[in-house]
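Late entry, written up from scratch paper. The run itself happened at the end of the previous shift, but nothing got recorded in the book at the time, so transcribing now.
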Amino acid sequence: MTEPRATFPHGTILGYPRIGRRRELKRAVEAYWSGSTDAKTLERTAADLRRATRERLAQLGLGRDDSSIPESFSFYDQVHDAAVTVGVLPERFAALRDADGGVGLDAYFTAARGAGEDAPLEMTKWFDTNYHYLVPEIGPETVFALSSDRFARQVAEAKVEGYTVRPVLVGPVTLLALAKATDAAPRGFDPLSRLDDLLPVYAELLSALRAAGAEWVQLDEPALVSESLPAEPAALADAASRAYAALGVRGDRPAILVAAGYAQLSPQAWTALAAAPVEAVALDLTRGAVPEAVPGLDRKTLVGGVVDGRNVWRGDLEAAWERLQALSVLGASEVSAGTSTSLQHVPHDVADEAALDPRLASWLAFADQKVGQVVTLATGLVDGRTSIAGELAAASAALADRQSAPGVRDGAVRERAAALGAGDFERGDYDARVAAQDAELALPVLPTTTIGSFPQTGDIRRARARHGRGEIDADEYERFLRDEIARVVTLQEDIGLDVLVHGEAERNDMVQYFAENLDGFAVTENGWVQSYGSRATRPSILWGDVSRPAPITVAWSTFAQSLTDKPMKGMLTGPVTILAWSFVRDDQPLAETANQVALALRDEIADLEDAGIRVIQVDEPALRELLPLKAADQPAYLQWSVGSFRLATAGAAPATQVHTHLCYSEFDVVIDAIAALDADVTSIEAARSRGEVIGDIATSGFAAGIGPGVYDIHSPRVPSVGEITDLLDRTVAELALRRVWVNPDCGLKTRGYDETVASLKNLVEATELVRERVEVGL
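Output as recorded:
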């Protein structure tokens, strides 16, 4: 290290929710996209949100001038932010660069959303979370150059307002490890091979941040904890060693905090970071143990991530304190208290939830409460344990109250789960099911369908809100929903789809809708969490044993089926996804909770069958998402996650066609698990990745029905007939024709009707063209 650096604060967080307490950024960004507001207005809204965040964090006890407040704002996605800052923009969008080669807002958003025939960047899940990031495209031809000064401007903006903040950006190793090769790159090209070319641009960026007033910078390197990336842990550790050796010796930089959340650092990476010339390392001590002492720690501050950034439970503050004490004996120069990850994964404030049961609320900690926990622990590190004894005792009392509360354990639910046997997870011979379903459904070759939801229009949202406020009664609201369902069914028949859906107008969210109808869940009013871009969800809180007091979807599905002679799907959300997209109790293994949810869904499937529904889709888009980052933990996860899906569906009759859906994941990693689900038909994302997964499916020997998506619904683009035809041609060339389905990548809830109708018409037209060709050869 070339010069003395600023000391690190005794407590900090690694990031904070950035969409606003009432989703102000979402509305501002979408207004900009629609053309109803301009860039200046959008920038003003963003600045107001950043100012409000800094003020709130200072009120909660983080320091205004000690770098404990992270500057973690993003208009869309932190990976995309880092990529465009260092000049990584796909060649198809090169014309959108500014005259000086910079990347402005229009280029930034267009790469994220696509335009015309130019497809957007691929999107996938951020490690094992429900947050999606945009995948950078990097090849040998990519020119790295500092192309945006936004990070530095935000540091300077805060400085003017009296704050010395810590800018947060994705580190160079993780940026390259998460990237994909450009189409122009040779086969086998690894973006990580460009590290030495990228580092000078990071060095230039660090210098600019220092000049803007940053005393510390946080470089997020979660790739160093993962064993699920193409690069091996040893290669990632070596890259980190080289990267931080090069950056650390610079004299014109801020002090560097390398943050590695989401799991435990690999031993190689831990050793590399300890030896690197950086000032601080942040560790996730909620999903990893306190590591062993290694050389170099005497020159480091260790930030103990003992407050969980990914769940909403108040947790065991006493245990958190003990982990900090264990960290302090490793020989580091200082120990600080922190969160395990950014708090972008949790809502803002429990105080915003007036409708929650007060007893349940006392067990919870959202972002603001977690900041308070960090401040408490930091106080203890400075003034000793006795100074925070009251706070530790209060947290322990809340934990004990939670464990003893009614509903947390339900004897009947547990007795039913304990009685399960192997036969409850087996459905029967697949070929016999196919024959029964062919006879029952009589579908054409390349059957067309959608994933489930249709656009949630302003009229639908207003009617739901009016019903919630009591402005319209239940009968009027039901009439509205029936009219909407009838309209969607007629539209699908007019377009020419083969298997229909009812559109899910009655559902606010694919998980929350079920949470509202199952015992053991609670829902929030303002508990918004960013999913991707401008999209946010309100994860439900699964706090107790789960059971189904009454049928949930049957009435809507049977009404929709009564309107058409075509098969109508019953639509359910699977047990793994309900867990993944909720804040789940942490007092028992996930496998036990998953089986409780599965049994409730099993009962729902039985009732749908009794009502005459012969196609039932059980969505599991989160199957890959929850896959543990450590290889040793993956077999057990796949066993219970696949088992819970099979428990939910194994009671279905042979003639009932069970579908499932998975989206925006690396399917090659879990292709065997997808097959083990034993669904009759699986629909998956393929359009945004331009069909990359098709080859993996073909070589895997996957034998069941498969629908690689041909329409990317996460972009407003309307795919042309030719584009869809090309994907279908590739699909039928590599996969067994009679098993191929044609569908979008995902549900249509977030899209508008004009683009949806145009896209589905193109989907049907392309399917008819391919049918004409392939049927000649049958």
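The first strand starts at residue 70 and ends at 71.
(Scratch paper discarded after transcription.)
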